[in-house]
Design a protein that fits this description.
- The structure is a single chain.
- By secondary structure, the chain is an alpha+beta fold.
- The protein folds into 2 domains: 21-199, no CATH class; 274-388, Heat Shock Protein 90, CATH 3.30.565.
- It has helices at residues 30-48, 50-60, 65-88, 94-115, 125-134, 137-159, 164-237, 241-267, 274-287, 306-323, 348-351, 354-365; strands at residues 291-293, 328-334, 337-342, 369-374, 380-385.
- The protein has a 5-stranded mixed sheet, covered by helices on one side.
- The longest helix is centred in the middle third of the chain and has 74 residues, at 164-237.
- The chain starts with 29 loop residues before the first helix and ends in a 17-residue tail after the last strand.
- Residues 1-9, 25-33, 347-352 and 392-402 have low confidence and may be disordered.
């Protein structure tokens, strides 16, 4: 049986509670969110000023003065509540939101009940607007429908006719205020999404620089360490200054190259090729006394995989220099694969390092895969595979161990 897919948390739903969390204090840009709250609260406050006219009508209406003043007091409390609700309601818990809407409805409907006037139910437009802001849309619409039907039925029963102008005012003002809330809700979430995208972009760039710096400096420093050790042994054993100077010259050139790579990495202009990495691997392995069995040409490798395979060779050879006592290192390449094998002892550090994790991420970016682990017959093996060509229906053949 096919399972029902889980609903996307960002997908609109009439039964979903409005998320106004972006109105909470944000350290990045508090001004934008503060302005949204001021706009919504000001719109509600201006609309609530119409309640002053309602209080004046109640004051001039005939009836017991105590009842009149009680109704005016309720209207005043209702107006104050309508102005405070947009400020505090959106960041309140769900039960408090329900309580806020319920209290506003009681305060808004009480004058109509006390004065037995269904026309006063038109003032509930502000409570309905707050309901649209704080409650799930399904519940708010049902509440609005019940209010409109209640006013129509009460007018028909009490007066024998329906004042459609009052009903239209109830619906129109509610829709207008609800639109203001919806626009601010949408704008606020767009601002929050923009901030999140900006943070993600910074995080991704930081990860890119860290990964590239690891690849650049890890290989360069490992090779320079090996060559420094060789230079020291030359001076200690034979004292051949000319040979030692040659090693130091190579070290100087490597340092310049590493510095250029660091600058290019930071600027995101660094390019790398499989040929250049194989040349660097040959020099580093020779300096470490490791016999290198490398391909003479890389023409068979697909162009879109050349750079990422260069990173694979660089990292794998660096691990051979740092974590292995290998005497031989073999590199084999194909159109969509590269394999690096050594005959040394593999270590957990080599298999779980940040470098191989970074390679996995690089290959995933080109829909490739990385395998690493003990090689058949001993040693350690790293195999990187790119995606099979679209025109080639046959799956990639598994590499035979060297």
């Amino acid at each position: 049986m096919t399972g029902v897919a889980a609903r996307d948390p960002d997908e609109f739903s009439a039964g979903k509670w409005p998320d106004w969390s972006f109105w909470k204090d944000q350290p990045d840009s508090p001004g934008a969110y503060g302005r949204s709250r001021v706009i919504v609260t000001t719109a509600t406050a201006l609309a609530s000023l119409t309640l002053i006219a309602r209080a004046e009508d109640i004051a001039h209406a005939p009836g017991p003065r105590l009842l009149t003043w009680l109704a005016i007091g309720l209207v005043a409390c209702y107006g104050i509540g309508c102005m405070l609700a947009p400020w505090y309601g959106p960041v309140a818990l769900r039960r408090r939101r329900v309580a806020i809407v319920a209290v506003l409805f009681l305060l808004g409907a009480a004058p109509a009940v006390l004065l037995a006037s269904p026309h006063h139910l038109t003032d509930l437009t502000f409570a309905l607007s707050i309901g649209l802001m704080l409650l799930p849309l399904r519940h708010a619409l049902l509440l609005g429908l019940a209010t409109v039907l209640g006013q129509i039925v009460w007018m028909r029963l009490a007066e024998g006719e329906i004042a459609w102008a009052q009903v239209a005012l109830l619906v129109g003002v509610t829709a207008a205020l609800g639109t203001v809330f919806a626009l601010n809700f949408t704008i606020g979430h767009l601002r929050a999404a923009r901030e999140q995208v900006r943070r993600l972009a910074v995080h991704q760039e930081r990860e890119r620089v860290a990964r590239d710096m690891h690849d650049v400096l890890g290989h360069s420093l490992s090779t320079m360490t090996v060559k420094l050790g060789l230079t020291r042994r030359i001076l200690e054993s034979s004292g051949d200054v000319a040979l030692a100077v040659g090693q130091v010259t190579e070290l100087e050139n490597m340092a310049r190259t590493a510095l250029s790579d660091v600058r290019a990495t930071i600027s995101n202009y660094r390019t790398l090729s499989l040929d250049s990495e194989l040349a660097g691997a040959r020099m580093a392995l020779r300096a470490a006394g490791v016999r290198a069995d490398l391909p003479a040409a890389t023409d068979a490798v697909r162009a879109e995989l050349d750079e990422v395979f260069g990173y694979v060779v660089r990292e794998a050879v660096t691990n051979v220099l740092r974590h292995s006592d290998a005497e031989r290192c073999t590199v084999r390449v194909g159109p969509d694969r590269v394999e690096i094998t050594d005959n040394g002892g593999s270590t957990g550090e080599a298999s779980a390092g940040n470098g191989l994790t970074g390679l996995t991420e690089r290959l995933a970016a080109v829909s490739g895969t990385l395998e690493h682990g003990p090689a058949p017959g001993g040693g350690f093996r790293v195999v990187a595979r790119g995606p099979a060509p679209a025109s080639d229906p046959a799956p990639a053949q598994k590499a035979e161990p060297s």
